[in-house]
Design a protein that fits this description.
The radius of gyration is 19 Å and the shape is globular. The chain is about 70% helix and about 5% strand. It has helices at about 5-35, 50-70, 75-95, 95-120, 125-135, 145-165, 165-185, 205-215, and strands at about 185-195, 195-205, 235-240. Helix 1 (about 5-35) packs parallel to helix 4, helix 2 (about 50-70) crosses helix 7 (about 165-185) and helix 4 packs antiparallel against helix 7. The chain has one domain.
Length: about 240
């Protein structure tokens, strides 16, 4: 590994994995205090039921995003060119160990800010919308990723309303991010051995082709044919969502 690559990984870890989560956590604790509300109680224990709720919420979040990939070819392409491309580019720079550390720390910071802080002040839906916007809402090409993140925000926020503990959306978000990172760039293929299904995770070249197309688009204009559905868009299901 070159010194430049090490420096890039260190910067990513320090900025996205340390500084940003710390600032978001501080903001999530201060916001309720400033308006006279109770800040997130990090000392509240999680019950077994709370943990199960968190796992269900993570599954619902990933399942919904996977469904978005299947609804329409244009939506699938938009997701691959936004959240999918961003995630793969970050993974290629960071590698799995640092990427997993970053998505875990960022999940905690985001839940502290958007669920523990904003949701207690402005409510579930506005906080989820702000969470979605924070995932690139100022860029037109990120609209699909913003939509997916806002939907996940609604799911995570609902778990806070149901359980009353910030740790439930935190755990749900961490599970979502870790699984999405592990499954990134892969798709599910199912084969049958008699009556027994065999599930395989295989590389999905469409995700990596999207990254290459995005890089080429800087130098080359996009032709009208780019908007036609991909011939292979139905070959296997997308394995998971994108890290939020």
């Amino acid at each position: 590994m070159s010194n430049e690559s090490r420096a890039q990984r260190l910067r990513l870890l320090l900025i996205a994995g340390v500084a940003a989560p710390v600032l978001m956590s501080a903001g999530g604790w201060l916001l309720p205090v400033l308006v006279g509300r109770q800040p997130p109680d990090l000392g509240a224990p999680m019950s077994v039921l709370d943990f199960l709720v968190a796992l269900v919420a993570a599954g619902c979040s990933m399942g919904f995003i996977s469904l978005l990939y299947r609804l329409h070819p244009a939506l699938e392409r938009a997701l691959r060119r936004s959240g999918g491309r961003v995630g793969i580019e970050a993974l290629q720079v960071a590698g799995y160990p640092i990427m997993l550390a970053v998505v875990t720390a960022s999940a905690f910071g985001e839940e502290m800010l958007f669920r523990g802080g904003l949701q207690s002040v402005i409510g579930l839906v506005p906080a989820a919308a702000a969470f979605g916007f924070s995932h690139g809402g100022w860029r037109r090409d990120m609209w699909a990723y913003v939509l997916a993140a806002a939907a996940s925000g609604l799911i995570f926020g609902t778990t806070l309303l149901l359980t009353g503990t910030i740790w439930v959306p935190v755990v749900a978000h961490i599970v979502h991010n870790v699984l999405s990172t592990v499954l990134m760039g892969k798709k599910v293929e199912v084969t049958w051995d008699g009556w027994l299904p065999r599930v395989h995770l295989v590389p999905d070249p469409r995700d990596f082709e999207t990254t290459e197309v995005a890089e080429d688009a800087v130098d080359e204009p996009v032709s009208a044919e780019t908007d036609s559905p991909d011939a292979g868009s139905d070959d296997g299901d997308t394995a998971g969502g994108d890290p939020q």
